[in-house]
């Protein structure tokens, strides 16, 4: 179900200038009229018109959609009847659920995602109301474990290191588990279960048919309290220090790619999970190779004779060189493919090696070479060969 938290504060029918009983065609007609009159292209520099255009578009996105409109109408009806207060067997405006069956998250966008370090701005009204409507007054929430902070760093690799993969040492400064208490924060190593919330991390209060829950202020929703804090970390379970780790960079990373190492970030408080380490990889260009996805590209200089007569040339790869056969009459600029000699991929496979041949013209010829070349040029003419015979410029 697609809903928005801000629906509660908006009057979309008024924004479109129609009544709540307007038909679909009336709503569409009103929106088109407002959009046409207030479009920014027709009102350059008019901020008020731009705001009216945006409001109309937002309103039509909701009440112009049958499913969203039904949810919006039900929500507004419930709010007009007194919000979330009261109990009873049903709710006005079409709600036929009892308090036992009704979950406020059904109206406010489901259970939304949460950030890994508590509440996020995108977690929806479920994060606010959470266990507002729970079963039998018992909180639906368990304690939410916190975690250490994520850490980002950057490295620069040579082209071949990135293509083949490598292992590099890194030094990181930040929160790490306390060596004295092994990250627990407790001198004895045994944090005490919070008495205020019985270890759940939330306190509950029943009011009539509903149960309300909130993060426990005594333990900060962790479910535990430190009664004998460690003298080294003062109960936090972490100390700030520099540590060395070895990072394995997988084969085939590209420039700008981020490699995630789970659990290698800063330590969480009181033995909670560590954050993640994100390594941004920069790759230096190579003088010989280039990449096209998993294919390795190389341009090899050759002579005219090698292309005309055919030959076998030696071509570099990421590992040992390979032999590539040039068929007689190979045109300049042709690309030949060598299977499986490109960038390594998962599953013990690899991309291909793309070899492009490029004629290298000699700058200086001795007398013998010049004489031979002139004889060849004459032989070409005698045979009727012209390199521009099918060239577009001769059309």
TrEMBL record:
Pfam families: DnaJ, DnaJ_C, DnaJ_CXXCXGXG
Keyword annotations from UniProtKB, A to Z: Chaperone, Cytoplasm, DNA replication, Metal-binding, Repeat, Stress response, Zinc, Zinc-finger
BP GO annotations: DNA replication; protein refolding; response to heat
InterPro entries found in the cross-reference section: DnaJ, DnaJ_C, DnaJ_domain, HSP40/DnaJ_pept-bd, HSP_DnaJ_Cys-rich_dom, HSP_DnaJ_Cys-rich_dom_sf, J_dom_sf
Note describing how the cofactor binds: Binds 2 Zn(2+) ions per monomer.
CDD domains: DnaJ (cd06257), DnaJ_C (cd10747), DnaJ_zf (cd10719)
Intracellular or extracellular location(s): Cytoplasm
Protein task: Participates actively in the response to hyperosmotic and heat shock by preventing the aggregation of stress-denatured proteins and by disaggregating proteins, also in an autonomous, DnaK-independent fashion. Unfolded proteins bind initially to DnaJ; upon interaction with the DnaJ-bound protein, DnaK hydrolyzes its bound ATP, resulting in the formation of a stable complex. GrpE releases ADP from DnaK; ATP binding to DnaK triggers the release of the substrate protein, thus completing the reaction cycle.
Identification of the protein by name: Chaperone protein DnaJ
Organism of origin: Corynebacterium alimapuense
Gene symbol of the encoding locus: dnaJ
């Amino acid at each position: 179900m697609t809903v928005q938290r801000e629906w509660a504060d908006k009057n979309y029918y008024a924004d479109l200038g129609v009544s709540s009983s307007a038909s679909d065609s009336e709503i569409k007609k009103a929106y088109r009229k407002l959009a046409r009159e207030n479009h920014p292209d027709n009102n350059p520099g008019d901020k008020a018109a731009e705001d009216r255009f945006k409001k109309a578009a937002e309103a039509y996105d909701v009440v112009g959609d049958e499913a969203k409109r039904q949810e919006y109408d039900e929500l507004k009806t419930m709010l007009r009847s007194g919000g979330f207060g009261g109990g009873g067997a049903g709710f006005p405006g079409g709600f036929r659920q009892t308090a036992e069956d009704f979950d406020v998250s059904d109206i406010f966008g489901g259970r939304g995602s949460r950030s890994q370090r508590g509440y996020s701005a995108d977690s929806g009204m479920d994060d606010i109301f959470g266990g507002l409507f729970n079963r039998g007054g018992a909180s639906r929430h368990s304690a939410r474990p916190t975690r250490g902070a994520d850490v980002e760093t950057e490295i620069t690799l040579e082209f071949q290191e990135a293509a083949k993969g490598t292992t590099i040492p890194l030094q990181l400064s930040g929160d790490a588990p306390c060596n004295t208490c092994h990250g627990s924060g407790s001198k004895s190593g045994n944090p005490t279960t919070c008495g205020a919330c019985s270890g759940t991390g939330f306190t509950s209060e029943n009011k009539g048919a509903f149960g309300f829950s909130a993060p426990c202020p005594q333990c900060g929703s962790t479910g535990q309290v430190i009664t004998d804090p460690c003298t080294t970390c003062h109960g936090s379970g972490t100390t700030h220090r520099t540590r060395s780790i070895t990072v394995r960079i997988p084969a085939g990373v590209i420039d700008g790619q981020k490699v995630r190492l789970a659990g290698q970030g800063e330590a969480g408080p009181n033995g909670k999970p560590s954050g993640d380490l994100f390594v941004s990889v920069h790759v230096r260009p190579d003088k010989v190779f280039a990449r096209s996805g998993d294919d390795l590209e190389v341009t090899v200089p050759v002579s005219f004779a090698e292309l005309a007569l055919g030959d076998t040339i030696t071509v570099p790869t990421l590992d040992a060189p390979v032999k590539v056969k040039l068929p007689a009459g190979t045109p300049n600029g042709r690309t030949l493919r060598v299977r499986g000699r490109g960038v390594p991929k998962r599953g013990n496979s690899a991309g291909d090696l793309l070899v492009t041949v490029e004629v290298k013209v000699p700058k200086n010829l001795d007398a013998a070479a010049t004489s031979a070349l002139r004889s060849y040029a004459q032989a070409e003419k005698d045979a009727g060969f012209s390199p521009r015979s099918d060239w577009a410029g001769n059309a």
